[in-house]
Amino acid sequence: MAYYRNRLFDKLSESKTEKEKIIKSFIYFVLPIFVLFIPFIITRFPLWSQFTFFEFFALFCAGLMSTLMPYLLNRYKDKFDAFFDALILHDQDQNTQFKLNNRSIAKYELHHKNLNLIFFFIMVVLVIGALISNASLLSHYGFYSNDIYIYILFVYLAFLLFQTAMGIAGVIMTIIVITDLAKENSIIEDAMDECYDRGMYMFGDFSFKTTLYFLFGLLYIPIVSVYIMNAEQLIVEVLLILSVVMYGSFLILSFLVPNLILNAKAQAHKRFLIAQNKQKYKQYCIDILESYPNSNAPKDIELEQLKALEVELRTLNLYNYINTLNNINTYPITLKWLVTIVAPSIATIVFVLINFFPKLVDFIRLFM
Fold this sequence. Notes:
The structure is a single chain. The protein is mainly α. The chain is 82% helix and 0% strand. The protein has helices at 2-5, 10-13, 18-29, 31-36, 38-43, 45-48, 53-90, 94-132, 135-140, 148-181, 185-192, 201-215, 221-230, 234-291, 301-327, 335-355, 357-365. The protein is elongated and about 95 Å long. It starts with a helix and ends with a helix. 23% of the residues are buried.
């Protein structure tokens, strides 16, 4: 998207391959903070040597996600641009094309920017508040209140939260974009055309890729689980458990809701076209009966036969068109996509609820 292209992704966009983008993502966004923390790692080594395997695994997953996040956001930006480029290129309605070129895209980019800032502010308040309220946990990892490294940690966390907020805003914008475009009849007609970039597939692919990129946030679940296990306050533990449940639920709904809305709109338009053309078909059938040569009519039998044949061909073409409409797939998603999004999301929710169910029970008992 234009607002971020020159701010965050210039270096990544210059890369020619996906592998090069990931390497640059690590060099520009992760390596500097790692170099800054080398003295911290050396001086706190006795603390780190006491960590469990799961804690090291959680830190590795968090580091991996920190590397991938700028790359995934860059991929989303490219997907967003490619999606609208395809719409503008194929759309035959000049008025709609004008709106896509000027009003709509600018509006979506502004909404994305505003949503990003809103979610960033909310997440900074919640995460920094949760960390400060569990100062002993920070001490467990070697971050002390009078240490410069705790301030470096907070700055880097703010940077990660900004990117996370950008991802959340991107998912919400995909929902808004698909929902808005579903209201445009010309776009629905083009999307239902099997020759139009595999029809509804283009919309489903845009939604799937957006949710898939956000699905990588599951790599943060191990570090969140470590925090839940070591948190001092029950309310913080419960809020983190519920946040993971909400994240998994959000993944599923953000993929299903826009596609179900689009499918409902396409189904309604498909039924309208079939009903409309069936009326024409009935009239054409009547025309066929009336177009056969009349034995009592004078002379030009050949001309009448040609006219009858023309009516029959027109009727046959309409019959084939109605069959084509019946066979058009209005579902913009595939079973493979559905399983890819839903399975890990549900597995994450189940994992968290099973492992931390006693903490939820303790929280509920406070109100009994």
